[in-house]
Amino acid sequence: MKLCKTVAELRTEVALAKVAGRSIGLVPTMGALHEGHGSLIAAARKENELVIVSVFVNPTQFGPGEDLDAYPRTLEADCLLAEQMGADIVFAPTPKEMYPSEDMTWVEVTGDITKVLCGHSRPIHFCGVTTVVSKLFNLAQPDWAYFGQKDAQQVQVIKRMVKDLFFNVQLRIMPIVREADGLAKSSRNTYLSPEERKAGLVLSRSLRQAEALFQQGERDGAELVEVVREMIAAEPLSEIDYVEIYALPDLTPLAGKIAGPCLLAVAVRFGTTRLIDNIILEGA
Ligand code: AMP
Q: Could you give the domains of the chain?
């Protein structure tokens, strides 16, 4: 496996692959890789001849006071895991390499899709995400790019960006990988104290409860939100950022009962750590 730290190095590898007619799979990450990322890399390995994993803690998607400086940076371990899962290249640029100048071009998806949920509490977040993912798409020129359902809103935003900007890439969305007890795997889980870690289980537990009610026929979105909200609020260490439900794919408010696919998503703080989780309800 090869580690590329510069745009020039990556470009050379991509050019060689293109000349040889090899298909390219890209897995964008911020590193501190775990099995969630691993599932994306493994899927990319199955479907492509060249697998590129980017490891870049993207500064433009962090707001003031967020955890940019504290975010775990574990490049050596990341390279090992990426290689084990079948990556050919890890692209780990410096911020200066990705953002050479302070005057820069932004790629922004506008509308409610970036304003609700995480876009509400993290106003610049998705603009940073779409900007860096555009840069990565242009550099890696992937046939396939892999994202996790863990970041459900990011998935919808990137789908929209790809459609609007005619990016020549197919997206593969992989299911949420969880710990055995249900906690969604996240690079940020390492911030949690043992008590917070335990309290965090309420997210998957409450979403499972909502899913069970949905399967039993409950189609009132507000009722499902209330069930989840009450369960989370009953956990003393939790501080709710949001518990909301939106219609897919555009994250529009539900008009009446659930009649099509929708996203039930939560963001909750445990101490200083903000965790997210979600389920998709395939309404019929
Ligand atoms: P991150 O490094 O947190 O930016 O995540 C990089 C990619 O891995 C994103 O597409 C995430 O949605 C995905 N990912 C992160 N955690 C998980 C998980 N637990 N299961 C599946 N995919 C995940």
A: 2-174 (3.40.50.620), 187-278 (3.30.1300.10)
